[in-house]
Amino acid sequence: MLGDSRKAQDVFHATLREAAVRAARGELPAEQFWLFRDARWRCLEATKSDLQPESVEMDERDVAPEAESQIQRLDPMQLAIWISAAPDPQRSALALFYLDEFDYREILDIADLKLSELSRFLAKGRRQLQAWLDSKFPQPSKV
Amino acid sequence: MKLLSSIRRQRSLLNCAPISARQLADRPMRSAISRADGSAEFVDQQNFDRAVARVVRLIAIPAESAEWFSEKDLVPISKRTWKKTLRNPAVLAISIAVAVIAGVFVFNFVSHLNDFPGSATARKLLGVAASTRPVVLDPVNAEAGTLSDLFFMKHGLEHYDVPAEFSDFATIGCRVFEDDESRRIAQIWVSEKRMQFFLFPAERDSKSGAVMGFPGWRYVHQEGWTGAVTEHSGVCFMAAVRGRDSDLEPYLKPADK
Lengths: 143, 257
Prior knowledge:
The structure holds two protein chains of two kinds. Chain A is mostly helical. Chain A contains seven helices and no strands. Chain A folds into two domains: 1-51, no CATH class; 61-143, no CATH class. Chain A has helices spanning 5-25, 34-48, 67-72, 76-84, 90-99, 104-111, 115-136. In chain A, helix 5 (90-99) runs antiparallel to helix 6. Chain A is elongated. The model of chain A has no long low-confidence stretch (mean pLDDT 82). Chain B folds into two domains: 2-67, no CATH class; 110-256, no CATH class. In chain B, helix 1 crosses helix 2. The longest helix of chain B has 25 residues, at 89-113. The termini of chain B are far apart. The interface between A and B is large, with 38 and 38 residues.
């Protein structure tokens, strides 16, 4: 979400601290994903003061069958930075989806999205990521 | 229009198709996947998502934060104390049931601890003693010890002798009757503490027919009555009194010496 381990750590600790305080007061919300929602808002707050990505139209390509081999060559940190550079709520959608810990209904709940929005963000994200992969690891042109 | 909306929704669901099967809990999602399964586009999407998820899993978590996800529990799991366990309704119910069963078992065990051959008959006769009225007995004015001749002469009962400990007591009445197993029982009522004596055949081994004797005096109890039983020559004698063992003990002591 943040593409910065130090900031991620600060957000993580702040979220846990808040949860501990609430628990001590017996004020833990009844809703299931409040902690994740809280963490997400903290991430968004933390990036408000950062340099914002320019709203440029990124290239998009359809997902290619060779994408798997391209992704394997990716450095995990590069991918983290790429996801964190996406505008929210697409960033939240991609981060929560690729964590592979939540099903789509849970993601809708945490990120306050509709199914059509989540679907759009993920499809767009895949196409943009494919374009980025193609530019980073160009495939030999087929004859 | 409805068909179009359904196709659009299905397309939306497929775009959100789970990466791993463990997130596959939703019926509409399962249905959408089963329809699209095998299509090249969907296969590419799934492979793409799985590959990205694998790389995401490799993103390093800061060491300080990773500590929180160590094997140690963040919140120590409260150990179940004995008190908590005992307060559990299921445990409580089972405990009570086991206690009742154990109680019945112990009661049966203790009540049969002092069993001896003929104790069952002796208990039945204590019930007879409790319900007998003097009028049902033939009035007799003699010492209890002398009645053995009467039982022999009149009823043909051999060895129906009152032991020496009780032979001097004055008799109010006596009778001979048959119990529900057609055994002939002699009943004597004496004036001393309104005691009743019973003489009945000792139990015999069902195979050999040998008398199953036992030494000394044995106590039996039934409905507030106490009986002291002894066996001699194949006949059991029981002195029955309403009360406890201590009411009979003084009469039995001289015999022990």
